[in-house]
Amino acid sequence: MLEAERTIIDVLGRYCAAIDDGDAESWVDLFTPDAVWEVGGPAARINFEIVGHAELRRFAEHHTRPPEAWHKHCIVEPRVDVRGDNATSSSYTFRLDGFPDGPVLQSFGRYLDRFELHDGRWLIARHTVEVQSSRPSPFGYRGSVPAPSEGASSTTDDT
Fold first, then answer.
1. Peptide bond into 67 cis (omega under 30)
2. How far is CA 14 from CA 9, 20, 28, 105, in A?
3. Residue 50 belongs to what domain range?
4. Which of 90, 111, 88, 114 shows the shortest CA–CA distance to 159?
5. Is 88 inside a domain boundary?
6. Is residue 145 part of a domain?
7. How far apart are CA 105 and CA 71, in angstroms?
8. Do the strands 48-51 and 86-97 form a parallel or antiparallel pair, or are they unpaired?
């Protein structure tokens, strides 16, 4: 069980690094084919959900990345509960954005995840970003947000 917990925490770390580096394929590879990725919470500027590898890839390909935008998604205090071939985790999260005069705390909240074991690999089946505090990103969001029906803004970056 400890090995599974460590592996799941590693998946969360790779999730953060891949989106920060603009590595869409590595990011998508961390999810089950029918995975759900959603943003919500008391401070989310919009609430939306995307489903499946194609929508995840589109989102990641349009996410801000170096060199135009330097940011670091970070997790703290991940708590993992493994039950057979399924697991859940809860982590505090924050995002730092880089500027010439120094880093700025962009947002914080929680990541709530559900994992499934697929062919010996722990993959994210559902990733929920619960935004508890956020400021508008000067980088915006390159492209259109892939989901919401209630009139999504094209300037979210609450990941």
1. yes
2. 9, 10, 11, 21
3. 2-134
4. 111
5. yes
6. no
7. 10
8. unpaired
Number of folded domains in the chain?
A: 1
Say which residue the tokens 């959900």 belong to.
49
One-letter amino acid identity for 118? Answer: H
Per-residue pLDDT of the chain (159 residues; tens, 9 = 90+): 899 999 999 999 999 999 999 999 999 999 999 999 999 999 888 899 999 999 999 999 999 999 988 999 999 999 999 999 999 999 999 999 998 899 999 999 999 999 999 999 999 999 999 999 998 876 654 433 343 333 333 334 555
CA 142 distance to own-chain centroid: 16
Domain of residue 62, CATH code: 3.10.450.50
The two three-digit tokens of residue 118, written as one number: 């697929």
